[in-house]
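Quick one: structure for this chain?
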Amino acid sequence: MPGIKAPWMDAILVLLGTVMLTEFFIHLNLGTFTPTVFHQTLLDVLQQSNAPHWWKTILSHFDKNSLWLAPVSGAFLLLTSSCLILLIYRGIMGLIAAIFFLGLWLSYLAYPGIWIFEFLFPALIALVATLSSLRFRFLGPQFFGKLSWLYRILITAIAAIILYYCTILSKNANELTAIASVEIAITFTVLMLISAGIDRYRIAENKVLPSVLSKTIATNLMILLIAAMLIMQVFSNHAVDFFSVKGFQSLSLYYAKQTSAPVWFKDFLLFSSKNAAILTPLYTVFEICIAILLTLLILRGPALLCSFLLFAALSLSEFGVAATWPPRPNDPKTWLWELLFITIVTGFLAIQETTAFIQAKGLKQKLLNGSLYGKLPIFLQIVIAISAGILLWLAGYLHHVFGSQYQTIALQSGITFSILLLLLIFVDRKRSH
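Got it. Here's what it folds into:
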């Protein structure tokens, strides 16, 4: 696939490690790794989530062993996150991260204030990235390549500053957020510089054996995960009236007043609220269009770039805002990575695919570059399309997405996703001719 030759899948694994590292220091400062707080956290999950009975039984066993599991869970987070950032046994560690986030998703099913894709998206992205790296050995291929030390330090410094700033804005560690932010940024910097140092001992990428998933298939799957999320979000926004002028206006005004984002962005939200009559239909059409384009893998570069800008704006809006809707006093803040993780992954893919779009020769290649189904039998393509819709419906149904209307939202999303994936079969045929 043409585009910027950067190790995007490895970058996503590093990002997953950064998410887990952030969680470690935030919960370390909140005291979660002490038996008392660990017990209280599990008790709260057991009482308020809609997790399956068998999973709650496992959590109950964890609760009974809080005395030693509390510190062990902290050590697990620190060790796994460090290995991911250092890209040590990246395939195995990516799989562990996928299981970890899947466990969080199961634990927080229908939990107040937890978005359906909050933990599910990292779990699935981790799984896809893992399958594209599973055969990598201890150190695997080079990450920084031929970049000079100046650029390695510069990239690390910029990433650490952004990480520090976003953590501050999130307020996830309450009054200890500033301390946690410094700890996270310093540890991240040290680990990245160590990774840059050991890069010389890694093998060149052209000497790496093919993995379970090719990078092209992995990229397509990640784009479809973003598309599935957008499809469900479209129906959710419609169900809770966010696509009406009044709903859009009240939501923009609430974010403008409550977000900890910079002043210039608050002004933008106030502007959006005052001009809701014009912006609401434009925003509705915009979100629907990029969901369709991404599912059909049409104009993927521009569509991903638009998605990245949308997610970035939403991430800024939700920093420091109550996780529940409608908000209640003393509610916990929205998780730092709820939308930020999706934003960064989409940004990585947008850079790659926009570059490929610019380099593509001819209108057809720009519109339809890259196939999903390839040479799979038509029957198998149909099975995949229908199965994907069923899985999206099931995820929405289990999570009770957006409250009382969750059954309708989940069903509409699943059916729409399947129909678009069936349509993609015919679009793929156009690509091959």
